[in-house]
Amino acid sequence: MIKNIVFDMGKVLVDYEGHKVGAVFMEDEAERKEVCTSVFDSQEWLLLDMGLISEEDALKRMQSRLSTDHAKEMAKLCLKHWHEYNMYPVKEMGELVRELKEQGYGIYLCSNASLRLLTYTNIIPGIEYFDGVLFSAEVKCMKPQKEMYDHFFERFHLKPEECFFIDDLLMNVEGARECGMDGYCFADRNIDALKECLSKLNKQ
């Protein structure tokens, strides 16, 4: 019996545009592309999500690839403020979270994200209904690694077979299934189809 619904964050509960902050601080298109690529399409970004590098060290490495002092300063601004511009909640998903909570489900978040977002969870729609939140940087591993799911189950004292996972990446859903937690790939962003799937839980 499914007792808990587990959500990913990016492109499920929250929309994310990795380079959007660049337009806030930079008018020059070439510089904007150079800076945003160095910041958001980087190994350091993954290391931040895994909690394996500090933001200070990540910034130094990002800046080392940039060609001008101005670009380096823009990288600093983008890294400092990205969460204020790149993320926005999906209202309909907040309504779904509320409905699921009213139906008696436990509501959880399991997401690949940096420590920065631990202080910015108010961006998550329906956050007041969540029973637990786990970000990858807290445990120094990432979905679809088995260790990430194991940390999740252990932290919140949950049984995998009683949880249902919603993620936009199939590899993360498959990783969850390998750990005993069934799930749904939300890649098409079709909320009606997701609701139909959830309505069938525990009715088989």
Walk me through what this model shows.
This protein has helices at 20-25, 29-40, 43-49, 55-63, 69-85, 91-102, 136-139, 146-156, 170-178, 191-199, and strands at 4-7, 14-16, 87-89, 106-111, 132-135, 163-167, 182-185. The chain is an alpha/beta fold. It has a five-stranded parallel sheet with strand order 5-4-1-6-7. Strands 2-3 form a two-stranded antiparallel sheet. Helix 2 crosses helix 5 and helix 3 packs antiparallel against helix 4 (55-63).
What would the keywords be for this entry?
alpha/beta; elongated; 5-stranded parallel β-sheet; two-stranded antiparallel ribbon; HAD_sf; 204 residues; HAD-like_sf; single chain; 10 helices
Uncertain parts: none
Label the structural class.
Answer: alpha/beta
Strand content: 5-15%
- Any idea what the radius of gyration is? 18 Å
Distance between the termini: 10 Å
What's the order of the H and E elements?
EEHHHHHEHEEHHEHEH
Strand order, sheet with most strands: 5-4-1-6-7
Helix content: 40-55%
Estimate the global geometry from the Cα principal axes: elongated
**Total helical segments:** 10
Number of separate strands: 7
Largest sheet: 5 strands, parallel
Overall pLDDT metric: 96
Sequence-ordered SSE layout with sheet pairings:
Blueprint: E1 4-7, E2 14-16, H1 20-25, H2 29-40, H3 43-49, H4 55-63, H5 69-85, E3 87-89, H6 91-102, E4 106-111, E5 132-135, H7 136-139, H8 146-156, E6 163-167, H9 170-178, E7 182-185, H10 191-199
Parallel strand pairs: 1-4, 1-6, 4-5, 6-7
Antiparallel strand pairs: 2-3
Helix pairs in contact: 2-5, 3-4, 4-5
